[in-house]
Inverse folding.
């Protein structure tokens, strides 16, 4: 029936919600309220059990066992989702080289004692320390103790693995994926002086300091592990540009431009001409044009654009493109005038 | 210099593993504590809630001064306790003139305060005051039915929030399969008005009915009280999004275009893209294949044959 379907049942939580329930009349006494609520409750629990007992049940010792469906109401988690562990240095290396994991046996056959011994731990196969006699090689210097040397090497190996393990755990702790049973503790406290108020560092300053710190490393900051979102190290100092190795001989031929520039500079420095005729002529022409235009423009300045039907200014009213060369011309003229006169 | 600390005892290791974040969470522990001043009513309320959730809750009986959940600095104690006891729901009771018989129910995410609901308790009836057949008494730790009735739970913000918090508080362990024999309790929550909610705890009696589904009868056993919603604080949006995240590892990947049964085995459909044969370039142009050349050859041979005939004739 329609009315039945309006009760929302969540079997995963054994929850029932009736959003259409209301008190027809405000209850007169406490008992009335209680009975009314119990009645509503009974209806709702009946709805849940209807759904529950219709699920497929398996027989267990105590009675029927039902597999509950997934709950539909979502509740917030109490802890964050477990973060994936970052790969260790060995795992990264193995992945890049394509090294597969091999299954090792826990017990191995020991030839000398004819028995099965463990591969690691107490009383293991091929124990390094159990060898009774070590034959001397030609490269050994007399008086050195090979047993002590073996012990030293083992100690070094153990130290190295411990250091690598610590580095891997530190890396995992940075991401927040430290295994639950491990805690990293600082054995020495950092040296603190007076508690100075931390000064506000700007983003640029921080970037500069990071850049400095990066370039201070042996490989110039190229192989440092970057934090998520960190940009590459900025290259300080001069940026040199080199000409391309192969280029066509058209308009943009940079090598030709370079050589032309050098050549013209040399020629200008060593030329004995006082006057650059070409430049002087163009300067004179430009000046004449502008004077003429100014005279014309000043008389009809106000009505120049208004008289025109489109309101567009007259063509010649644009700023003279020769002004730039005029300045340069005077400079050039001056320079050429400054040229030595022999 | 850093040192790696791992526990030396297996028991400690087991505890740490229990507290580690899991992919699928199996129920939150509750912390019940009180403030500086509590009334008799409040004491019994907290005691009864503790008894209802016996195995999964921790009760602190001492008075705590510096807990003010709704103030910005007053949550540090709660967060510390949450970390210590690994509890992510807390029930904090306190009485004052302004707020008599006050209970704050709050949840934490990652041991930081997630959300809070403050309710006042009225018309409280303890478990002892109910008379019923002792055989019906619900077992400790059984999974309860939870029922909400009332349109207020959908329309009013505070009641909606209270509904979610009560569901979280009262639901038991999250289990995959349930024994139908162990269903014996229900929490009935009814919205009486826009800020008042009637909560009661009943035992469930399953009576024989004609079909597989038994007939339900409720018998009031446990505490019953009126909750008046006073204040509430919803979680901020980013925290809520984080807390509601579901991992996608467990979800099954949909395999498309594959059907199968036990007789025929796995059958798949492969869709071929349109091979535009007409637009493809022919690989090599064999001379003898081209039609023009063929025709020209034919003509030439005919012509040659004709010519020979003529010559022969001449």
């Amino acid at each position: 029936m329609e009315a039945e379907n309006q009760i929302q049942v969540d079997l995963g939580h054994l929850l029932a919600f009736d959003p259409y329930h209301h008190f027809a009349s405000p209850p007169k006494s406490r008992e009335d309220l209680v009975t009314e609520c119990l009645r509503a409750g009974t209806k709702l629990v009946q709805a849940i059990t209807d759904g529950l007992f219709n699920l497929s049940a398996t027989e267990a010792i105590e009675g029927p066992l039902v597999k509950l469906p997934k709950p539909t109401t979502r509740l917030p988690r109490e802890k964050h989702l477990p973060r994936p562990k970052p790969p260790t240095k060995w795992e990264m290396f193995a992945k890049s080289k394509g090294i597969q994991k091999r299954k090792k046996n826990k017990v191995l056959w020991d030839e000398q004692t004819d028995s099965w011994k463990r591969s690691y731990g107490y009383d293991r196969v091929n124990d390094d320390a159990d060898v009774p006699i070590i034959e001397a090689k030609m490269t050994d210097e007399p008086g050195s103790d090979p047993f002590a040397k073996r012990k030293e090497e083992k100690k070094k190996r153990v130290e190295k693995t411990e250091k690598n393990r610590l580095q891997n755990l530190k890396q995992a702790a940075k991401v927040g994926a430290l295994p639950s049973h491990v805690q990293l503790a600082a054995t020495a406290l950092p040296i603190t002086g007076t508690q100075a108020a931390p000064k506000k560092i700007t983003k640029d300053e921080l970037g500069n300091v990071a850049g400095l710190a990066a370039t201070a490393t042996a490989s110039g900051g190229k192989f440092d592990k970057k934090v998520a979102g960190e940009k590459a190290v900025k290259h300080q100092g001069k940026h040199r540009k080199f000409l391309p190795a192969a280029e066509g001989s058209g308009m943009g031929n940079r090598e030709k431009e370079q050589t032309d520039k050098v050549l013209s500079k040399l020629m200008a420095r060593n030329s004995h001409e006082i006057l650059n005729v070409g430049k002087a002529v163009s300067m004179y022409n430009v000046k004449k044009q502008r004077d003429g235009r100014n005279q014309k423009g000043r008389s009809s300045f106000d009505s120049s654009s208004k008289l025109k039907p489109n309101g567009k200014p007259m063509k010649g009213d644009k700023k003279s493109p020769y002004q730039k060369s005029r300045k340069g011309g005077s400079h050039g003229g001056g320079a050429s005038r400054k040229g030595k006169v022999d | 210099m850093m040192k790696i600390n791992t526990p030396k005892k297996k028991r400690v290791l087991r505890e740490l593993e229990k507290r580690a974040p899991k992919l699928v969470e199996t129920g939150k522990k509750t912390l019940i504590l009180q403030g500086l001043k509590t009334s008799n009513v409040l004491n019994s309320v907290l005691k009864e809630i503790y008894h209802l959730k016996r195995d999964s809750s921790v009760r602190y009986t001492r008075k705590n001064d510096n807990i003010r959940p709704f103030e910005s600095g007053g949550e540090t104690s709660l967060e510390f306790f949450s970390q210590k006891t690994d509890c992510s729901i807390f029930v904090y009771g306190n009485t004052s003139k302004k707020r008599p018989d006050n209970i704050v129910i709050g949840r934490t995410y990652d041991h930081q305060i997630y959300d809070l609901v403050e309710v006042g308790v009225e018309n409280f009836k303890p478990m002892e005051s109910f008379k019923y057949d002792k055989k019906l008494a619900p077992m400790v730790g059984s999974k309860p039915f939870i029922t909400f009735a009332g349109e207020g739970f959908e329309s009013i913000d505070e009641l909606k929030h209270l509904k979610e918090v009560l569901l979280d508080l009262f639901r038991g362990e999250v289990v995959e399969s349930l024994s139908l024999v162990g269903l014996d309790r229900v929490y009935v929550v009814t919205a009486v008005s826009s800020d008042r909610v009637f909560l009661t705890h009943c035992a469930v009696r399953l009576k024989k009915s004609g079909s597989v589904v038994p007939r339900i009868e409720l018998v009031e056993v446990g505490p019953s009280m009126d909750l008046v919603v006073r204040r509430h604080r919803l979680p901020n949006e980013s925290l809520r999004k984080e807390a509601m995240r579901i991992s996608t590892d467990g979800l099954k990947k949909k395999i498309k275009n594959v059907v199968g049964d036990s007789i025929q085995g796995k059958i798949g459909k492969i869709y071929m893209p349109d091979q535009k044969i007409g637009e493809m370039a022919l690989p090599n142009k064999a001379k003898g294949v081209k039609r023009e050349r063929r025709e020209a050859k034919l003509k030439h041979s005919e012509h040659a044959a004709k010519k020979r005939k003529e010559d022969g004739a001449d």
The longest helix of chain B spans residues 291-313. Chain B has a mean pLDDT of 89.
